[in-house]
Amino acid sequence: MKLLKWLSVTDRFYKIYLDKQLAPFGINSSQHMFLIKICRSPGILQDSLMDMFYVHPSNIVRTIAALEKQGMITRSPSTKDKRTCNLYPTDRALSVIDEVQAVCEKTEALLLQGINKADQELFLKLLTQAGKNITAELHIERTEEEFND
Amino acid sequence: MKLLKWLSVTDRFYKIYLDKQLAPFGINSSQHMFLIKICRSPGILQDSLMDMFYVHPSNIVRTIAALEKQGMITRSPSTKDKRTCNLYPTDRALSVIDEVQAVCEKTEALLLQGINKADQELFLKLLTQAGKNITAELHIERTEEEFND
Q1: ipTM of the assembly?
Q2: Which residues in A lie closer than 8 A to residue B18 (C-beta atoms)?
Q3: A2-148 has which fold?
Q4: Which residues of B touch A13 (CB under 8 A)?
């Protein structure tokens, strides 16, 4: 039962830590991944975020609405597919995104403290394998892009 | 950013899987750890669960109240310390706990599918290290018992 426990503890506490670190930027640990992706790929389709982060469509809608309300992104209906939107970062988002990314990298470095480089890589590989095992069991569809992300 | 992403995905989906598997027993993925502990240590003090699972006191109170309402546990004020309670499993809990534990073990086996025994042990060791790194950063107090759990 240690595996379930430590997955839960580690996930919960890195998010508490990240929330504290991200608070000055007006975003939280359920938004940073989306904001970084939108800043790095302006115009990205809202629907493509679903496959990328394995998130339920209703959660995407909620997170995107929150980021828009916070003045971090803008939406415009896709010309290719009217059922979805293109997402663009605002100047405000672009002005903080490097710092947001640095906070995420600092969080990862903190998690990996005291673990040598080879074990860090193996850890990530094994964690990814575990994640793919469980999403496959639940028949979650994945895109190639997601695998490379 | 892969580490944060896969911690989040793996934790989220094992809980979705576990919720489905635990539904027939009337409990969920935020309750199983407590129920197992109470069944294996009848009379355990409610306060000791806090240190064991790094859970906020208000969450413990909520989870214990839910398990009591579901007829899984009973509480009685501690004779040693009136501020806390001794927790006992009901016959109903004892009749399902082995199956609940088997479901948890099946979930762990699913996560670890395709990973050899040595890597499984290393994975757990590295994940535990990552969890301790982040809880130490947030100054979460831990007991020796917790470390051995």
Answers
A1: 0.90
A2: 4
A3: Arc Repressor Mutant, subunit A (1.10.10)
A4: 54, 131, 134-135, 138, 140
